[in-house]
TrEMBL record:
It comes from Dokdonella fugitiva. InterPro entries: Aldolase_TIM (IPR013785), DAHP_synth_2 (IPR002480). The keyword Transferase applies. Keywords: Cadmium, Cobalt, Manganese, Transferase. This is Phospho-2-dehydro-3-deoxyheptonate aldolase.
């Protein structure tokens, strides 16, 4: 009988999408706002405020990501686990930009590939939590969900989900974005300025000779090309930075989802490159529903519990047209699990003829808690997962096209190990993160150099 089959196929056809259609789906990790009218008022205001990015920037990033998936570029995506409203300051923003810029130059030079730079900033204000509430000394309060939702202090007032924070988050993102754009346009990334090459850190590194040689070689190449051209090369004064964040609080994302003249469809104009976190990637959930309808390039974080079948279905829903640059898959398995967990997923995508951009996040599968309940990550495990990622992709015939890191331009002591071999005792010295531990300035640059080394070794062994 044909009829039941027809009904079955009709019922699985995607329903009409709208920026608010996610509201009819199961919603994970959303704040509980006590006052619906207060929320409505904030959202009405937010939906009238100007966007943070433009559709043409979004579409040009999509083209760059397509090239990264095709092996012609490498993606460097990094920044804080969570930005905070208090950290929206000039030195923190410029130091973060500087470390990303230096890492990207190490990668460009070593990989001989252009690098796409994407910050986890200008909107990375919301966090998924493993529990909805937290109990201290017999007092239970809602969990801290990032500055977009509530505040970290352990008081009832601080932990209240406050809709006004959505407006403040938009404003802080705009300030960050404005400063980043001004720095980039004003020649902050000008390679002619040697002060951007802070060499202090290499004194502690076993990689110091390599690093110095690389800095020298970049300077020489630049001078050589300028001699050929007979003038300073303007294109070396400007680089592009794109923004990304976990699009977690869907009311916020919806209010910044807009239509623009001369383009079909809807764009999330709060960021260039939103991603779905591991805890909100359920196929029938609100986040997947929201993401399927926007035209931005999008990413999904995938952990060791994702099955090949789930991944196939996610890819079909989120990228039914198989559009180049649309879908990035960020795997975050953990150093000890990547060898088993990743190959079946690579095989599944390959078998279905898909070529997503594969990116390794070597941070989130390697978080551990040491004495006094401090959350940390070991540099060796971060490095180990990245090394394995290159090997696993090489064995599968797929390509690792980028890295996703939690880092800061400050000299914090949150991750152990690295050139200075930070120990558990060092963690107390400069641990600033409210959430996950970040690589500090030196550890970040060191990791960039190790990526280059690993890729070089792999190519030499072929
Ligand atoms: C994060 O990127 O900060 C995060 C929470 O990651 P994941 O969703 O992969 O756990
Ligand atoms: Co994190």
């Amino acid at each position: 009988m044909a009829a039941p089959e027809r009904i079955a196929s009709l019922s699985t056809a995607p329903a009409e999408w709208s920026p608010s259609s996610w509201q009819a789906c199961p919603q994970a990790q959303q704040p509980a706002y006590a006052d619906a009218t207060e929320l409505e008022r904030a959202l009405a205001q937010l939906s009238q405020l100007p966007p943070l990015v433009t559709s043409w920037e979004i579409l040009s990033l999509k083209r760059l990501l397509a090239e990264a998936a095709a092996g012609e570029r490498f993606l460097l995506q990094g920044g804080d686990c969570a930005e905070s409203f208090d950290d929206c300051s000039s030195p923190l923003i410029s130091n973060r930009l500087k470390v990303m810029l230096q890492m990207s130059l190490v990668l460009v030079h070593g990989l001989k590939l252009p690098v796409v730079r994407v910050g986890r900033f200008a909107g990375q204000y919301a966090k998924p939590r493993s529990a909805d509430s937290e109990t201290r000394d017999g007092v239970t309060l809602p969990s801290y969900r990032g500055d977009l939702v509530n505040a970290a202090a352990f008081t009832a007032e601080a932990r209240r989900a406050d809709p006004q924070r959505l407006i403040r988050g938009h404003a802080r993102s705009a300030m960050t974005m404005n400063f980043v754009r001004a720095l980039v346009d004003g020649g902050f990334a000008d390679l002619h300025h040697p002060e951007y090459w802070d060499l202090g850190w290499v004194k502690h590194s076993p990689l110091q000779d390599e690093y110095r040689a690389m800095v020298e070689s970049i300077g020489n190449s630049l001078r050589f090309m300028e001699t050929l051209a007979g003038e300073p090369l303007g294109s070396f004064q400007r680089v592009d930075f794109y923004t990304s964040h976990e699009a977690l609080v869907l009311h916020y994302e919806q209010a910044l989802t807009r239509q623009v003249p001369r383009q079909a469809g809807w764009f999330n104009l709060s960021t260039h490159f939103p991603w779905i976190g591991m805890r909100t990637a359920a196929i029938d959930g609100a986040h997947v529903e929201y993401f399927r309808g926007i035209r931005n390039p999008i990413a999904v974080k995938i952990g060791p519990s994702v099955t090949p079948d789930q991944l196939r279905r996610l890819a079909d829903v989120l990228d039914p047209e198989r559009e180049p640059g649309r879908l990035t898959l960020i795997h975050r398995m953990g150093a000890t699990r990547i060898g088993d967990a990743l190959p079946p997923l690579l095989a599944a995508m390959k078998a279905s003829g898909r070529t997503p951009l594969w990116v390794c996040d070597p941070m989130h599968g390697n978080t551990e808690t040491v004495g006094n309940g401090v959350k940390t990550r070991r540099f060796e495990n971060i490095r180990g997962e990245l090394d394995s990622a290159f090997d696993v992709h090489a064995a599968a015939g797929t390509r690792l096209g980028g890295v996703h890191l939690e880092l800061t331009g400050e000299n914090v002591t949150e991750c152990m190990g690295g050139a200075r071999d930070l120990t558990e005792t060092d963690l107390a010295r400069a641990y600033k993160s409210q959430v996950d531990p970040r690589l500090n300035y030196e550890q970040s640059l060191e990791l960039a150099m190790l990526i280059v080394r690993k890729r070089g070794a792999l190519q030499a062994s072929r």
